[in-house]
Each structure stands twice: as structure tokens, then as C-alpha cells.
Q: What sequence folds into this?
């Protein structure tokens, strides 16, 4: 399997897990979604918003690369978040719509990439103002790993509220081979 195909698989997994986490979180009341449960980003909704912030920041960095990305032009209407702990959406309905939009954008972006582009460097400045130059394929992988990490935190918060998130293993979506 090529690296591009691995990223497409991760984008599909990412979409499915985000869909499931929104469905699981929808079992919580508005108060429970906002409740400070002692997590790093305090609540279920703030943690979900942080995942989205990370996605927006990275997608905007990918969009600002020297090579134009047709699929990422759809980000133009989305403002860059001011903080990593910002509450972009204070309700699950608005969050869910934007989450679905971003997951489709990530999937389309991964499909748009050419294998050779994954070895190219991406230059960006992080939140601390430090300039970096790193391999594009590794940074795209980071987007997925960042989500996995924080979704794990959300599944823990959900389990504390007696909500079973269910299956999270990648083999569930890996196709069987002949």
C-alpha cells in the first residue's frame, strides 16, 4: 500500500470515528457536554473543539503551501482560531455540521495529493512563533494522530458518564484481501 493510500485509509477511519464520537456525545445533556470533568481541555465539548482547532490550523497551513490545493480553497471562509482552547461551537449541532465538512475536506485533500508530494517540505510557523520545515506526509499523519489522542480523552470522559463509545480499532475498516 502506498503512503497516499495509507493516508486515505486514515482519513476514512478519522471520519468514521468522528461520526461515532458525535453520536455518542449526543447522548449527553447540554450541561454534561460543558461540564468540567478535570480533563486537559476540561469538558467533552471543549476537547472536541480542540480537535477541530488542530484540524483547521493544519489544513490552513497545508492550504498556504506553495502548491495550490484546490480542495483546501473551501477553508477561506473559516477564520483561524485565536487559541488552542477556544470554544468554536457551544452546541453539538453546529459542531457536528462543521466536523462533517472538515472530515470530507480532509478525505478530499488526501485523494487530491500525489504520492511524490508527501516527501516535499512544508514550511510553517507554529503558535509560539517558531518557524519549521517538515515533511508534508509526516505532518498529515500528525493530524490523524492528534485526533486519535484527543478522541481517546473524549471516550474516557464519555465512559465516566456511562456511555459506551464502542469499537475503535482500525481493522474494522481495513478491507480483507483475497
A:
Amino acid at each position: 500500500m502506498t503512503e497516499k493510500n495509507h493516508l486515505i485509509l486514515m482519513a476514512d477511519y478519522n471520519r468514521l470515528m468522528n461520526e461515532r464520537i458525535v453520536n455518542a456525545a449526543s447522548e449527553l445533556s447540554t450541561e454534561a457536554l460543558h461540564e468540567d470533568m478535570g480533563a486537559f481541555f476540561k469538558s467533552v465539548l471543549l476537547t472536541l473543539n480542540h480537535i477541530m482547532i488542530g484540524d483547521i490550523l493544519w489544513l490552513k497551513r497545508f492550504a498556504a503551501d506553495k502548491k495550490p490545493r484546490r480542495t483546501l480553497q473551501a477553508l477561506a471562509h473559516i477564520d483561524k482560531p485565536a487559541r488552542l482552547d477556544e470554544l468554536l461551537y457551544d452546541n453539538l449541532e453546529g459542531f457536528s455540521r462543521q466536523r462533517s465538512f472538515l472530515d470530507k475536506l480532509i478525505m478530499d485533500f488526501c485523494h487530491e495529493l500525489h504520492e511524490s508530494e508527501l516527501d516535499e517540505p512544508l514550511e510553517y510557523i507554529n503558535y509560539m512563533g517558531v518557524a519549521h520545515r517538515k515533511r508534508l506526509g509526516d505532518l498529515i499523519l500528525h493530524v490523524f494522530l492528534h485526533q486519535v489522542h484527543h478522541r481517546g480523552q473524549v471516550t474516557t470522559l464519555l465512559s465516566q458518564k456511562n456511555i459506551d463509545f464502542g469499537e475503535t480499532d482500525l481493522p474494522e475498516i481495513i478491507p480483507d484481501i483475497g
About this structure: The first helix runs from residue 3 to 25.
